Amino acid sequence: MSSVGSDDPGFVHRLLDKVPGMVGYWDRELRNRYANAAYIDWFGVTPDAIRGQHIRQVIGERLFALNEHAMRAALAGVPQLFEREIVDPQGVTRRSQARYIPDVREEQVVGFFVLVTDVTDLRNAQDGLEAAQAVLEQQVTERTAELERTNAALRETQRRLELANEQLEARVAARTAELTALNHQLNTVLSQLAAAQRITHVGSWSFSTSSGEVQWSEELFRVFGLAEGGIAPRLPEQVGLYLPDSWARLNAALDRSLRTGEGYELELDVVRPSGEVRRAVARGEVLKDDQGVVFEVFGTLQDVSELAQARQARDEAAERARLATSAVQMGVWDWDVRANRLVWDSAMYALYGLDSATSVNEFEAWRASLHPDDRASAEAAVNAALAGQSRFDTAFRVVHPGGAVRFIRGTARVQHSADGAPLRMIGVNWDETKQRQTELRLRANETLLQQFVLHAPAAIAMLDRDLCYLQASNRWIRDFKLTAEDPIGRCHYDVFPDIPERWKRSYERVLLGAVEGCAEDPFPRAAGGTEWLQWEAHPWRQSDGSIGGLILFTQVITDRKELELLLISQKAELERSNRDLEQFAYVASHDLQEPLRAVAGCAQLLKHNYAALLDNEADELITHIVDGGSRMRTLIDDLLKYSRVGSHVTPLGRVNSGTAVQNALANLNVALSEASATVHVGDLPIVSADAVQLTQLFQNLISNALKYRGSSAPHIDISARSREDDWLFSVKDNGIGIQPQYFERIFVLFQRLHSRTDYPGTGIGLALCRRIVERHAGKIWVESSLGNGAEFFFSLPKQY
Ligand code: ADP
Fold first, then answer.
1. Hey, which residues does 115 pair with through a beta bridge?
2. Which atom of ligand 1 approaches the CA of 751 most closely?
3. Looking at the domain that runs over 649-800, which CATH code has it been given?
4. Are 461 and 551 in contact (CB under 8 A)?
5. Topology alike, domains 10-118 and 649-800
């Protein structure tokens, strides 16, 4: 079988021939044993020509010399690798890499392999690569350098940036701190502003003219007494926050500011919801844009109520002070003792009635003005003060040039030198004339009062707070029979040990300021009997207004009181006996009727049955008995009527007086027509009366008008007119009339002006009329003159 590959002995040669590069083998003697095709080609020999040839012949002397050392080394067993530039047979310089590999057999180097590879391309490529790499490296270096530069620049920039950053941060921090501080300041200022607003009661506000929006500070809500933190009312809604007049003025000021751009300041009255009115000062300013158009109004409102009050109080105090000083008219003087120069202020000249323009030497002026009687004491006072003996405080009189005398008081202070010599004296003078006059007047009043009390025709005593006598009038001493002891200085209760307890209580109240008294007060005396006193107790006050004690005014009214008591008992007695008499009159007249009726009846029978049997004288006697009996009946009837007015009363009721008149006229119908009388009755009122008695009243008056008629036919006029409190009735006739001196008398019981033969009657009629009218709380009277008729008037009260 044919062998292929390593089994083929020619294979290695064929393989080595294919190897790019030269492969040879040299033995120890440097004789060639093998060379591949490329080796043979390179040296331009044939394989046979080379085999066994010494290397020197093959490669030439130059190369041999060049490589001998390596050859020897390889034969010594050391592999060699090196490169050489060689010129190829074509004359081209090539770079080859040679390898000498020792061939060791049984630890003996028997030769060495030579492997030569053309590495020109490789090296070229390598060189290119290296060059490229160098360029690259250069570039890299440059780039690196550049990068480093850039980097450095960057680092620099970064450093700067960092620096800048640091600075920036520092500045930012500083700025932040500044801002924080500013913010803090702002907050402080804002809270201070709020506090300031609160403390000064100044509220602030702004008003945008475009939106109409209003902003208020917290304090403004407080000024208006509104809940804080609310929404500020718009301008038209603020109308109720001010008094009407203030509101009008505020609006006028706002209008003006909007028109003119000027600010305003006003005092306004603000009304709080509670109704409390506060005084406030309103200030406003306007803000304008570039075109000069107002876009905002802002301002403040300050509650100045307390301020206004304080201002008023201050003004009043200043006014008081001014009044006080001007009232006192205090003059100030300053005397330089060593230079003997005296200086007066203008008030001094006024005090001394002098003219400052004409005065030359004030000291002389002072001396000259002194009242002669006071000159010595005033000068002595000055000298004593100069000598340091006393304070200068003295009073003296001065005489004005016109002669007027004024009381002057002066006080002064003296300045002394270290050695005690007087240097200067400064003092004040003021006019005390008024006080002195008042004092004198008071003293005079006091004396007058003392004298007055002492000699007053009344019992007066003045006691102090302990009720000790300060003063007692003579009358007091006499009335209370105190002549034996002088009461002055003694206690009232010692002088009168029998004072009733109730008076002591009264005195206590008077000492507290009350005024007490009694018009009639019994004072049972310890010695027996009772004094009656009319008394009054008043507190008296001291100059400071406090109560100093009491003044007693008394009048012993025992005599009067006893008389009064006597009168009262007598009156009661009279009334009682009057009642008894009335009762008696009534009973008597009532009881007399019965036997009278018997006597009159018997007389009538006697006259009727026995007239023919008796003689003329007996007839006449019988006629007398009958007449007497009938008169007596009339008298008794009238008396009965009279006594009934008081004893048989019916309560008053509403009575038509016209009806009463008509009833009376009906009762008198026969008599009226017999006499051909005419009667005119006017409008008569409804009155409060006893109907029967009112009829009786009219009947008596009308029958008298008929009875006392004159020669002509009687005419009677009955009328009434209203007065303020009563009705005034009138019954008027045209009869014989009455003389004025009898106007009173005719109303008295049994009083008549005529004899029974002229006009029959009992004299009871008008007395009865008066009794009826008086029972109705009215009055009755007559107006008349003889021959001219009579007009009887009576009044009846409207309210009874
Ligand atoms: P009487 O008529 O019974 O006498 P009166 O008391 O009625 O009693 O009158 C008293 C007196 O008043 C009468 O007596 C008479 O003189 C006088 N008098 C009364 N009424 C009139 C009268 N209308 N005109 C004149 N005199 C009168």
1. 23, 99
2. 10
3. 3.30.565.10
4. yes
5. no
pTM of the predicted protein model: 0.38
> pLDDT of 552-578, one tens digit each?
999 889 888 889 889 998 998 888 877
* CB of residue 733 inside a 6 A radius of ligand 1: yes
Most confident residue range from 61-65, 211-215, 791-795: 791-795
Q: What ranges do the domains of the chain cover?
A: 10-118, 202-305, 330-434, 458-556, 574-648, 649-800
Ligand 1 pocket, 392 CB below 6 A?
A: no
Which residue, 254, 220, 426, is CA-closest to 330?
Answer: 426
Checking if the pLDDT of 1 tops 50, the result is no
Region of 292 (left: φ > 0; alpha: ψ -120 to 50; beta: rest) is: left
Cβ(535)–Cβ(552) under 8 Å?
yes
Cβ–ligand 1 contact at 790 (below 6 Å)? yes
Listing from the earlier edge strand, what are the strands of the sheet with 530-541?
A: 469-472, 459-464, 547-556, 530-541, 516-524
Q: Which residue is listed with tokens 């109520």?
A: 305
Is the Cβ atom of 98 under 6 angstroms away from ligand 1?
Answer: no
What's the length of the chain?
800
Superfamily of domain 458-556: PAS domain (3.30.450.20)
Q: Whose CA is nearest to atom 19 of ligand 1?
A: 704
> How far away, in angstroms, is 659 Cα from ligand 1 center?
24
Contact (CB, 8 A) for 780 and 767: no
CA distance 280 to 518: 59
Cβ distance 283 to 257 under 8 Å? Answer: no
Structural domain 10-118, CATH architecture: 2-Layer Sandwich (3.30)
CATH architecture of 202-305: 2-Layer Sandwich (3.30)
Contacts of 721 (CB under 8 A, 6+ apart): 727, 728
**In CATH, what number does 330-434 get?**
3.30.450.20
The pairing of strands 678-681 and 715-722 is parallel
pLDDT tens string 222-255: 889 888 778 888 888 888 899 999 999 999 999 9
Please indicate whether residue 749, judged by its CB atom, sits closer than 6 Å to ligand 1. Answer: no
